[in-house]
Structure prediction request, 1071 residues.
Amino acid sequence: MEDSTGQIVKVAGPLVVGAGLPEPRMYDLVRVGSQRLMGEIIELRGDLASIQVYEETGGLGPGDPLFGTGGALSVELGPGLIESVYDGVQRPLDVIRSATGDFIARGVEMPGLDREKGWEFVPVAKVGQEVAAGDVLGTVQETKSVEHRVMVPPGVSGKVAEVMQGSFRVTDVVAVISGAEGDTEVTMMQRWPVRMPRPHNGKRAPRDQLVTGQRVIDTLFPIAKGGTACVPGPFGSGKTVIQHAIAKWANADIILFVGCGERGNEMTEVLLEFPELIDPYSGEPLTKRTVLIANTSNMPVAAREASVYTGITIAEYFRDMGYHVALQADSTSRWAEALREISGRLQEMPGEEGFPAYLGTRLASFYERAGLARCAGTEERTGSVTIVGSVSPPGGDLSEPVTQATLRVVKVFWGLEDRLAFRRHFPAINWLISYSLYLGEIEKRWNEEVAGDFHRLRSEAMSVLQREAELEEIVRLIGVEALSPAERLVMETAKSIREDFLQQNAFDEIDAFSSLRKQYLLLKLVMTFGSEAGKALEAGAGIKEVIGHPMRESIASAKYTPEEDLEELEALIAEVEEAMKLVVEGVVHDHELTESAAGRAREKVKKVFDTY
Amino acid sequence: MSIKEYLTVREIIGPLLLVDDVEGAKYGELVEIEFPDGSVGTGNVLEVSGRKVLVQCFEDTRGLSIGKTRIRFRGRGMELPVSRDILGRVFGGLGDPIDGGPEIIATKRLDVNGNPINPTARDYPSDFIQTGVSAIDGLNPLVRGQKLPIFSGSGLPHSRLAAQIARQSAVLRKEEEFSVVFAAMGITFEEANYFIEEFRKTAAIERSVLFVNLADDPAMERIATPRMALTAAEYLAFDLGMHVLVIMTDMTYYCEALREVSAARKEVPGRRGYPGYLYTDLAMLYERAGRIKGAKGSITQIPILTMPEDDKTHPIPDLTGYITEGQIMLSRELHRRDIYPPIDVLPSLSRLKEKGIGEGRTREDHSNLSNQLFSAYARGKEAKELAVILGESALTEEDKMFASFSDEFEREFIRQGEFENRTMDFTLSVGWDLLRLLPRAELKRVKPEQIQKYMKQVD
Prediction:
């Protein structure tokens, strides 16, 4: 054991001030107390270093030793990441559990990657080949879904002098590269400081859609691979359900789920459910492509602050291999609160609502680590990191600092609303306030990959929903009779869009995931009803017959059509057209009826206005 | 071990004492404070800086003086002595017996702050708890290991509801060991007495552990009370294998005590003067609910909080809602109309519902039926709002049906007796009966087969 290199002088919650560390640097990792708790230097004043400690600090006092490590907080990157469950500073929670029991004890030092496990390394690079940082030396089949590409670590380049084949542990040498400064032994494991973005060869504008299988997201407010999105909403509006749905069904190669200061039982749900669920793309259990970071709300607050960085660094590492990675951070508000707490202990001058003034910068630099990038290395490949961060605004008030700072940087906004959740409309994404700035790019792709009229249907659906909101105002003021038959139909079509298209049951086996093709057909079905019924009305059909048509029940249950029977939906669309034509032919005019009702309503409006 | 005594108190500000020239004090350490009159109180270390120590006093600081107060550092954190004998006992807010009984002969002394449950050790809560209250069982069911708070307001019958839940869910499982841990924070003698009497009457007291901090007890003690209670609960659940129901009332007073300390420390406040770490602090309490893989017992929490001005965006209910797995919301309007329990089911929510109900747990139609009732009630309420503005004649025929459905729903489904213990089947059949008021075509959330099977046919 190394000698003690410093002493604690002050303890205030998760913040410890120490003195006597030789040459302390900002964000250096320090071991605190005789239990060697992990901590990180976040402020320096003369000889004094303020250290945020990633574990509970009870029992520490002045005079206790400090041990400098000279390095920054880093993560271990290599085979073994997938299927792991880490805490905020990359300690494997399952390993900790077998070592210390059901409750997390303090001062546990655990490497992020299993040191003993052997991995079958298959070389790709040849001896004598010139390689640069980022080039693939060999591969390891990490899980059935993920081929781990072992790359030349950043900062190393030269000629491959030696490359092995066979079963190795992560710390064994698998290749030797001789460069200008001599030979470098390369292992399967790299270390990288979490607060520093990993290098790449330049970013590109995201263009491919990240299909999530959620209709309101994919059709109305799509996100691109390499994009950023935020999901703000008050409690009970279903943020976590959306995050889970994306983690389950998104067509990304790797999923990184960061549970940052949220409920323990939610992480348990992920832990128990993901091994059971089958990835629709690879046919393997979802865990085979997932890395989990669980720093629940009752775990130390400073580690919560670190957890999003640990997550994004692992995500970048997989991006460098040329994969598309989706990172879910649930919730960034808890992360911001951790910043606030530490900032308060440092007695910094607060910005809005007690948050530190650098909140916006920190958030922006985190989201900026997303993107579609040309990976480092001589061969041409691209990979992406998509970030979806949930935000938990106090009282559901979107004007609060974290939401506002996030909205400045993200390109997609899915605004959740508790009013919709109360009506059990899930996902409770409000279609009027949400937006996606990737829509233009993605619509172009739809033309090629889904159908030429998809984007037309989408914009029609949006305008129907918009129109509904206006008409609702009128209905609220003077009642539904005041509407013309055409307006009634708009209301009904909007209702159908909401109930038969947007509402999606995350707990139903079939409804939980919709392919783009199915989304298109469902939307087309609903919109065909709208347009055909409109024609029927013009031709003289009565509104009641149109909106009360039995066909609508088939439309309502269409979303439960399994993916393999999508031709049924096409048939249904044709049936709807046919049915509406029949309505026109068999019409019994009840013009008088609707006319008189509308007349009565108009009179009522007059009365209302007269009284004022 | 010799314990040093310090007479070096330099400042007393509110509940805080600044002690100087201290050697070897540790963060979080338990402190004995001897008053000039000889009485002894407790405190703990909030901050140590060099030889200066900031102590939070859990007692009223009246009578303390700078020169004559003696401070002893105990060399350990705050602990609770536990053994099976804690069952049936009443303790004060700091864990000392106040029922006149003997001291607990401890088999174990536990740190009251506990340690977080390793997320990989948690087992998902999925065992339905029948509370016998339709509005909960039918629509927002409680499961073992859940934390489901009651959001109430002053003057609403949250205590009666909590007592009813404790009473009725307790009698259901005779074969398993069940116990109730009750933490009172800042509530009145009458309220606390109501619970104690309730537990006595139903003989539940033998299976209960009570921690009582009353409104006239020192406010600072309240910060320790829920920690005591949850430590006892953890011992009962994970050492003795019992299913523990923890009722904590009133969380609002707990949070106010936290705010008082924070203000005395001149910390940068978050919303409404509450400290920025309120979320973390509450999470440390609420997250102690749960189940552990392989352990027989479980901890289910029902915290009660009164929302200032019935405002659920107030920081206390707001942050609570972000941590707990749903909430039971009480409504003043229903209470005024004499509906007991006045549970407003629309904003109420049980997040663990889907996992706890359905075939093999309750009944296969449970989930669909509850969704149908929810949406029909929501629509009925909307129609009624509309009727208030426009008059009932402005409603469509359907809206009128929904409006009368929502009235009946409140009368038949939500309203029930304080001692009425409804079975699951009864609750569901009341629901199906009510759906008969609506046109069949509107019942989109239940399956036709279910309508066939469960809805009583009338000619």
Notes: Chain A touches chain B through 76 residues (CB under 8 Å). DSSP finds 17 helices and 26 strands in chain A. Confidence is low (pLDDT under 50) at residues 588-598, 608-612 of chain A.
